[in-house]
Structure prediction request, 420 residues.
Amino acid sequence: MPDGGADCTRDTLQELSETVTAPSAALPDRLSHLLAPFAPHDALVILTADVDGGHQRGAGDESFVRGVSYLDLDDRRRAIRPGSTQRDELDVAGRTVQILLAVSRNGAVLVLAGARPDAHGEATVLDLWNIVSLRIQELADHAPPDYLRHARYSSGERMEALAELGAEYSTTLETVLASLRSSRLDNGAARQAATAIATEGLVHLRTASDRARTATEEPVTTAFDRLRDDLRPLMRYRDIDVQFVDPPVDGRPLPSEVAHGARAVVRGAILVMIDDPDVSRVRAQWDCDGTNLIIGLRDDGDGALSSDSSRLRLITDRVHALRGRIDVDMTPGWGTEISVVVPLDPPHAGGMRPTTWSLGERENDVLARIASGAHNREIAADLGISENTVKFHIANLYRKMGVSNRAEATATYLSEMRFA
Prediction:
């Protein structure tokens, strides 16, 4: 007859199995039920990149779930290392709540409200969360790439709305300040107090705007470290040497959907490469030129990777969903090289569709060559026009497309041509 400990272990494994096989929408409730024996709690909130594009979701006390600030969670996530827990407090809906914060090895955030487990329970919560967060990541990696495209456009809309709102309130506060500083107004003490309040409000507004922007970004080095951690379990039982070339430490932070999508692209590409039994080494490199994330992958196989591979097509779709460009170069006897360029800036919310760009014939010719990677001198020679004329056409098509540089024009063109 099994003892109580064996029964408990069997029940936990059964609960874990039901959690990782649950639909995405049901996962918070299942996870809450799974963790309750080890850390009883009033509410649970998770923040992950998932098939819905990384929405914050929860279970339990609605006032806590709805009242938790994304910015507060992100601040705390950045303060602790992945694969660890921390006890903390959160101010939610006018009350201070004791929480247990767990950040999985892949960076997903779990918050348990009102939980005060012992050391064993805390460690068990982290172990189970590491497993469940991998399942959430897997759901995102294998989902159709439409959610990445939606996340890119949503990011653009959020940033534009934030900029508009910030500009509006900033203008209002600056106008108030200008009026209050006027010597023509009476009651100096009241004017001084109101000036101080308006000044403080302006500082808070600018701080909140900066926090909202940085909360949707991830340092490029952190994103690359998470990729390395993601791949470690995949390589553990394979005789494959994966060499990582780190990005520059001062590289521009990546929007969250770019960081997540890029990791999914690299993981998928490496899995495709090592399916070739002749591959023993893969090199993965990230770089950042301030405008784009540049990814390079190369293996030492026989260069026989099929360009018709369904898994390679999924990777290509993900790159296009991020408005990026992918090139696959297969050289028999020398291996396969995959190059990916993903623009960091989200598309404008009001970006024009191809039918409304109204490009002239020559502008379309120039755009097609820009998208192929040609420089101005090459475009001029190809079309039999001067470089100054090329620059003139480029300025016009930028204005009509609602973009500001070659990378945006290329990404927009390729994305629209792929999904039109």
